[in-house]
Amino acid sequence: MVEEDKKFETVNAKLDAILQSSYDGIYITDGNGLFLNVNSGVERITGVKREFLLGAYAQDLVEKGVIDRSVVKLAIESKERITINQNVKAEKLKEVMVTATPILNEEGEVNYVVANLRDMTDLIHLENECCKAKLLSKQYYSQLLMEKNFKEKIIAESEVTKQLMQLAYRIAQVDSSVLLEGESGTGKEVFTRFIHEISSRRDGPFICINCAGIPENLLEAELFGYEEGSFTGAKKGGKAGLLELADGGTLFLDEINSLPMNLQGKLLRVIETLEVTRIGAVKSHKVNFRLITATNENLQELINNRLFRQDLYFRLRIVPLYIPPLRKRKKDIIPLIVHYLKYFNKKYNHKKEISINALKYLEAYEWPGNVRELKNVIERLVVISVNDLITEKDLPHEFITSIKSDDKFHIIIKEIVPLKELIEEVETQLIDLAMEKCGSTREAARALNISQTSVVRKFKEVESKLKREPNLVQKNL
């Protein structure tokens, strides 16, 4: 008997050693949920002391708030292996995955429950890190796409255009409807393509339609499609509309202000239901597209005049994006000129250049047609200019008169001269003009904001120069 007890103790010691050697947490309870043995892994994973568990019941831990639910109880009740995620609150809150296996006797009753624990905190942390890495990777990829498209498709030197690009990048990350506002020719379609190409829909279709460019009687069929026989001239088999063709991609409706009132209601329904019904059809088609619209008119004024639906306006203008005219972003003008000059030189196999003076006139121009007008003007200059150097003489008349009449001075330097000579020449012209207009040294001094003594001295120097070199002063320097 003593010998058998020794053998039992030896086996028990070996089993305990095996239990303690496991990195995972393992504990054993009896058929009532009383903890019989707990290895050190349980203490390490949960933070609950082994001494606290031994002699306690699993359900007691639930009542004391140590665990949120007991897997042991579930295993005893079901008599089947159970796996759950369990929250353990000891030194800090932890989430563990517990698998409890009931051991049944010959009568089918639960004698023991063996439970295995694994710490989910590290796994969850790793999963979160993986999600963050994926998100950063996606953002980095989108950023690369943005920079690539930024350099290739949009010229942005002015601060306002750079800010627009950053805003467009953020807009591209979501599917909200965007309304682009601004004058004709500012590049609204270019911005729309940019948003599409750096969005998650970049592999989907990009459908663009100008609402003002299609007759009203054809616009409905183009947008919504039609069934066979729905009207005279309808194609056999019917036709899918542009709203259907945009599924999975981006739909751009330019000059949305020209959309007839009867179609505005139909478009609003598509936006709200994400379903399109063809003309003559009874069954609708599900669609999923990103909607971007543009207007060159003030939609609020159209709403006030009952020419545009206010409810549609609110659905379209979730994210407004105003594209300012070219005259408001002057720093973009010369880079745009250089860009299109290079483009048309390549297209027509020319090697044209533009003089500094010509650039000055082009930059001073108001550009009522914006980027579209600039592009057309540069193409015209490349095609019709006789010499390889495009000068101010090649520019249309409106550009020569583009310098505002209220400008106080306009100096065009035709050749490089020493700075001192240039300053002396300008001073000579200014003193001579002041004396001519003011009539006295006192009034001239007041106009020039210098002392009368300085005017007298400088005017004598001017008279002396004029006697020596009568043709020195050129009023059109």
TrEMBL record:
<keyword id="KW-0804">Transcription</keyword>
<dbReference type="InterPro" id="IPR000014">
    <property type="entry name" value="PAS"/>
</dbReference>
<dbReference type="Pfam" id="PF18024">
    <property type="entry name" value="HTH_50"/>
</dbReference>
<dbReference type="GO" id="GO:0005524">
    <property type="term" value="F:ATP binding"/>
</dbReference>
<dbReference type="InterPro" id="IPR058031">
    <property type="entry name" value="AAA_lid_NorR"/>
</dbReference>
<keyword id="KW-0238">DNA-binding</keyword>
<dbReference type="InterPro" id="IPR035965">
    <property type="entry name" value="PAS-like_dom_sf"/>
</dbReference>
<feature type="domain" description="PAS">
    <location>
        <begin position="11"/>
        <end position="55"/>
    </location>
</feature>
<keyword id="KW-0067">ATP-binding</keyword>
<dbReference type="InterPro" id="IPR025943">
    <property type="entry name" value="Sigma_54_int_dom_ATP-bd_2"/>
</dbReference>
<dbReference type="InterPro" id="IPR025944">
    <property type="entry name" value="Sigma_54_int_dom_CS"/>
</dbReference>
<keyword id="KW-0547">Nucleotide-binding</keyword>
<keyword id="KW-0805">Transcription regulation</keyword>
<dbReference type="Pfam" id="PF00158">
    <property type="entry name" value="Sigma54_activat"/>
</dbReference>
<dbReference type="GO" id="GO:0018457">
    <property type="term" value="F:perillyl-alcohol dehydrogenase (NAD+) activity"/>
</dbReference>
<dbReference type="InterPro" id="IPR003593">
    <property type="entry name" value="AAA+_ATPase"/>
</dbReference>
<protein>
    <recommendedName>
        <fullName>HTH-type transcriptional regulatory protein TyrR</fullName>
    </recommendedName>
</protein>
<dbReference type="InterPro" id="IPR009057">
    <property type="entry name" value="Homeodomain-like_sf"/>
</dbReference>
<dbReference type="InterPro" id="IPR027417">
    <property type="entry name" value="P-loop_NTPase"/>
</dbReference>
<dbReference type="GO" id="GO:0006355">
    <property type="term" value="P:regulation of DNA-templated transcription"/>
</dbReference>
<dbReference type="Pfam" id="PF25601">
    <property type="entry name" value="AAA_lid_14"/>
</dbReference>
<dbReference type="Pfam" id="PF00989">
    <property type="entry name" value="PAS"/>
</dbReference>
<dbReference type="InterPro" id="IPR002078">
    <property type="entry name" value="Sigma_54_int"/>
</dbReference>
<dbReference type="InterPro" id="IPR025662">
    <property type="entry name" value="Sigma_54_int_dom_ATP-bd_1"/>
</dbReference>
<keyword id="KW-0058">Aromatic hydrocarbons catabolism</keyword>
<dbReference type="InterPro" id="IPR030828">
    <property type="entry name" value="HTH_TyrR"/>
</dbReference>
<dbReference type="GO" id="GO:0003677">
    <property type="term" value="F:DNA binding"/>
</dbReference>
<feature type="domain" description="Sigma-54 factor interaction">
    <location>
        <begin position="154"/>
        <end position="383"/>
    </location>
</feature>
<keyword id="KW-0560">Oxidoreductase</keyword>
<dbReference type="InterPro" id="IPR013767">
    <property type="entry name" value="PAS_fold"/>
</dbReference>
<dbReference type="GO" id="GO:0018459">
    <property type="term" value="F:carveol dehydrogenase activity"/>
</dbReference>
